[in-house]
């Protein structure tokens, strides 16, 4: 185990640490991509997401002055065979926390594999291409490059609050969030559309619990219908208290309806809704290895890649293997 500098310590986080963690993440974001790209709501979500226990799975590193200079936590809300190792460190001064935190987290991944019932467990992690120290540390720990994601964004300046008409035969409307059958259909489209991608399937009940939190912007969720059947779903999440960006969490179109303008119609309806609320920007993340070439649609509607992130992977064997 790599030791921390003299006077530095680690401890488990609590929700009272959210402001300090957010300050750390923003410092990391600014160093890596030039601007903050995380909200306090997202910090809370990461600390409380299913299958993450702050008292067992997460760590903070504090320097000799008691400042939070590192944060490590996993991410496997579905309980499946793949986890995500997230490690943040304060640029420059927090670098000594990087390797110790990663070692703690990877040792915990072995235990998590067993607890979740998996013999071989895939662990992924991410880094912006310019984060040299992080990439070197991941490589030393056995991670190998897998692919890239892009963080897409566009300004909503000048976007009309009235969306253009969808293609003939397609109706785009807000989801009826109080209709359980419709929510099941909405969720089913997401799961079916992403079956050939890296999307981690989530049973309806778990997804339903996630979206039941206060503040879910259902007025920014839309469905596309053809012949009375839902063939496309767009799920938004709120930008949170630190950001008023409209965020597209999922855009899904059934295979039989692709390349017919359904995805673009859903996006433009969401952009119009964001603009009507005064949101300044719209954003989303896209897997650049997605077999549907979703990135082409996002570029077509005027989005740009704010930055790209490398994804790395390794595997661990469950305790007792």
UniProtKB/TrEMBL annotation:
CDD domains, sorted: NAT_SF (cd04301)
Cited Pfam families: Acetyltransf_7 (PF13508)
N-acetyltransferase domain sequence ranges: 170-321
Keywords: Acyltransferase, Transferase
GO molecular function, one term: acyltransferase activity, transferring groups other than amino-acyl groups
Highest taxon of source: Bacteria
Keyword Transferase attached: yes
Protein name in the entry: Putative N-acetyltransferase YhbS
Organism: Actinoplanes italicus
């Amino acid at each position: 185990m790599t030791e921390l500098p003299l006077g530095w310590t680690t401890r488990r986080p609590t929700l009272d640490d959210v402001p300090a963690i957010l300050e750390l993440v923003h410092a990391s974001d600014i160093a890596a991509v030039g601007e903050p790209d995380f909200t306090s709501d997202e910090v809370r979500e990461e600390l409380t997401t299913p299958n993450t226990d702050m008292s067992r799975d997460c760590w903070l590193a504090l320097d000799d002055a008691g400042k939070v200079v590192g944060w490590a936590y996993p991410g496997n809300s579905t309980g499946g065979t793949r986890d995500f190792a997230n490690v943040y460190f304060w640029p420059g001064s927090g670098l000594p926390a990087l390797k110790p935190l990663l070692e703690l987290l990877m040792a915990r991944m072995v235990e998590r594999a067993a607890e979740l019932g998996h013999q071989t467990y895939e662990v992924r992690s991410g880094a912006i291409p310019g984060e040299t120290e992080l990439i070197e540390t991941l490589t030393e720990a056995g991670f190998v490059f897998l692919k890239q994601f892009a963080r897409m964004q566009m300004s909503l300046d000048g976007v009309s609050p009235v969306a253009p008409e969808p293609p003939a035969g397609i109706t785009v409307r807000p989801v009826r969030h109080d209709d359980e059958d419709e929510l099941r259909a909405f969720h089913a489209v997401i799961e079916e559309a992403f079956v050939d991608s890296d999307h981690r399937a989530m049973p309806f009940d778990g997804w339903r619990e996630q979206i039941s939190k206060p503040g879910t912007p259902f007025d920014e969720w839309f469905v596309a219908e053809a012949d009375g059947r839902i063939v496309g779903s767009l799920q938004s999440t709120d930008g949170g208290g630190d950001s008023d960006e409209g965020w597209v969490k999922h855009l899904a179109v059934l295979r039989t309806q692709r390349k017919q303008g359904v995805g673009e119609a859903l996006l433009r309806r969401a952009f119009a809704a964001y603009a009507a609320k005064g949101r300044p920007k719209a954003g989303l993340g896209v897997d650049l290895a997605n077999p549907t070439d979703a990135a082409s649609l996002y570029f077509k509607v005027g989005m740009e890649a704010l930055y790209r992130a490398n994804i790395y992977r390794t595997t661990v064997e469950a305790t007792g293997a």
